[in-house]
Amino acid sequence: MAEKEFVSAQEVARRAGVSRSAVSRTFTPGASVSAETRRKVLAAAEELGYHVNHLARGLMRNESGIVCLIASEVATPYRSALVSAMTQKLQDAGKIAMLVNTDRSDGSVDAALRQAISYRADASIILSGLPDKSIVKLCLKNGLRLVLINRDDDQEGPFRISFDNDEAARRILTAFLRAGCRRLAFANSAAMTPSLMARETGFIKAAEAEGIEVIVERYGNTSYSTGRMLAQRLLTRADRPDGVFCANDLIACGFMDAARQQFSLSIPDQLSVAGFDNIEQAGWGSYDLTTFSQPVDAIADCAVDWLGVTQQVALADPSVTLHADLVWRSSIRGG
Amino acid sequence: MAEKEFVSAQEVARRAGVSRSAVSRTFTPGASVSAETRRKVLAAAEELGYHVNHLARGLMRNESGIVCLIASEVATPYRSALVSAMTQKLQDAGKIAMLVNTDRSDGSVDAALRQAISYRADASIILSGLPDKSIVKLCLKNGLRLVLINRDDDQEGPFRISFDNDEAARRILTAFLRAGCRRLAFANSAAMTPSLMARETGFIKAAEAEGIEVIVERYGNTSYSTGRMLAQRLLTRADRPDGVFCANDLIACGFMDAARQQFSLSIPDQLSVAGFDNIEQAGWGSYDLTTFSQPVDAIADCAVDWLGVTQQVALADPSVTLHADLVWRSSIRGG
DNA sequence: TTGTAAGCGTTATCAG
DNA sequence: CTGATAACGCTTACAA
């Protein structure tokens, strides 16, 4: 069984008693075809279970309808929220997402982009990692649009969407000071991606302007367990910090759990904590974390809108900086 | 700029001074081509930035290399872990994942399958929801393989992977009894998907066998906030339960937070809680939840292996039941 | 091993 | 509005 395989426009045409071009036109929005022919074609198609072959269509039109999503750590709350929003918006725009997981190797962003080229994707949205300059040039030459999320690098060509991390750092500093914190720390992973580093340096600079020195600790990957480890390191210091800005929410959650369970600290009375991302768990009762929201829907909208724009315009405005809203909860003592 | 578009095998052939079939063969594993020609072709391809057009290749071979992942609630911890594992394993098997988000509408699983047919996907893996019988038949007729995850329905045709929920229910009942719990409850969402219902009925039956009646509460969707709401309902009862099996971890986390914060209950001293899925957060310090692990890697392996199998074998063994391991943590009083 | 030629299922062009 | 015909870029007999 099952050797019959797919049904083609040819067969539909025969069945409906029309030419194959009539069939094609019926399934091409805005093509001129009479209501009667259309009806006959649709009936025959339904009966036979015909579906336009997007492979062949993409071959002809040089536009596959595929958009490649390139990401690592897809199971992470923030990343998965982004993937979810992206797939949704792409579908709304009539596109379909191809998801490439780059967890394994390091040069895999480049490999992912080659996949995108091979499938003649209309665009690639890079949610994590950074492609090599040469492959970027290759993509652009091939008409494959590139969107870079959360990368403040000075890459040429790709459309870049990122957040104003400096501004966020300044705002959270003010909040810490108003809460009466005296010894501030920044809890970072050792990943040193642009956005993480921007938060770190932004926080340090903002504190410097107030004459305060920030204790910085970096360790491991950007995860919950890293947060616990950072708590271990920061809270055993003689000059124990009383206000900690964590590079993201995952780290903050780990930090809070360790602070409470291993150091019996009360939050926010003895320790104020802030995070970044506003992942779902930040709103959970055990954390109720003050953090910055990176509105994934806005990012997705922004990216997908840009895909719909003409090439001319696309090249004109190569980047966008969004603002991260401060979500005030109870992990910082109220002013 | 960028109007040059993609480079074809034709151009590579010209550049390398060989026929276009030589180029094709060079990129077809196991085709007969001399080392010398191969070298020339590879050099020319590299120089020109040639990439095989998978659209055209798929058209010829009737095998696109695309596997469609159909899922709702992709941002959820369990679901995103599954998506991550699936994409990884598919890539290892030389396939590529197309992700279709079915959050929006209800009949969207069917729509997603139509997409899969249109792109001539080699298979579709349905992570949530249930397709209509007619579309399933259409897929199968078209040679599109179907995998159904966590669906114990009596669907014909698709390969089904699910967990032994009954067994899990029996085991957790034993644990509750050993912990000295007297009044048991099952906290479920109103989604009533097969796996959720299997856990519920399995738990009820197991308790019945011991002469115990289970309080069942169902509410809303399968989420953290539902867990809080269920705590509200269950913990205000006159016969307040002291052992609660939650349909999944997300519900359990919400339940625990509400139990502690709104009812000042100590877990596990005054209340034992168990969940299902073993999402990352179940292991976080604030929850340390006893739960069942649904090993996403095993599921993904199982699904992807089946895709590689010949059609004959594929039809022979239409389903697999995996065992969910009990992950013992501190949310149930120790025996 | 190599090249030639015939498809794969579309869409776009161009007469009618 | 409709139908033939020529691409699109590739793979695969078949013949050399």
Q: pLDDT average of chain A, as an integer?
A: 93
Uncertain stretches of 5 or more adjacent residues of chain A? none
The largest pleated sheet of chain A is described as:
6 strands, parallel
Global morphology of chain A: elongated
Reading the helices and strands of chain A in chain order gives HHHHEHEHEHEEHEHEHEHEEHHEE
CATH topology of the largest domain in chain A: Rossmann fold
Major beta sheet, strand line-up of chain A: 2-1-3-4-5-11
Number of helices of chain A: 13
Counting copies of identical and different chains, the oligomeric state is homodimer
Question: What are the SSEs and their pairings?
Answer:
The structure is a homodimer of 335-residue chains.
Chain A (H helix, E strand, L loop, with lengths): L8 H8 L3 H7 L8 H14 L5 H8 L4 E6 L5 H16 L3 E6 L6 H11 L4 E4 L6 H9 L3 E5 L9 E5 L1 H14 L5 E5 L5 H16 L4 E5 L5 H12 L7 E4 L2 H13 L10 E3 L16 E3 L2 H13 L2 H6 L2 E4 L2 E3 L8
Parallel strand pairs in A: 1-2, 1-3, 3-4, 4-5, 5-11, 6-7, 6-8, 8-9
Antiparallel strand pairs in A: 10-12
Helix pairs in contact in A: 1-2, 1-3, 5-12, 8-9, 10-11
The structure holds a DNA duplex (16 and 16 nucleotides).
Walk me through this protein's architecture:
The structure is a homodimer of 335-residue chains. With 335 residues, chain A is of the alpha/beta class. Chain A has 3 domains: 9-52, no CATH class; 66-163 and 296-323, Rossmann fold (3-Layer(aba) Sandwich); 165-295, 3-Layer(aba) Sandwich (Rossmann fold), CATH 3.40.50. Chain A contains 13 helices and 12 strands. Chain A has helices at residues 9-16, 20-26, 35-48, 54-61, 77-92, 108-118, 133-141, 165-178, 194-209, 224-235, 249-261, 296-308, 311-316; strands at residues 66-71, 96-101, 123-126, 145-149, 159-163, 184-188, 214-218, 243-246, 272-274, 291-293, 319-322, 325-327. The radius of gyration of chain A is 25 Å and the shape is elongated. Chain A starts with 8 loop residues before the first helix and ends in an 8-residue tail after the last strand. The model of chain A has no long low-confidence stretch (mean pLDDT 93). Chains A and B meet through helix 4, helix 5, strand 2, helix 6 and helix 7 of A and helix 4, helix 5, strand 2, helix 6 and helix 7 of B. Strand 2 of chain A pairs antiparallel with strand 2 of chain B, so a sheet runs across the interface. The structure holds a DNA duplex (16 and 16 nucleotides).
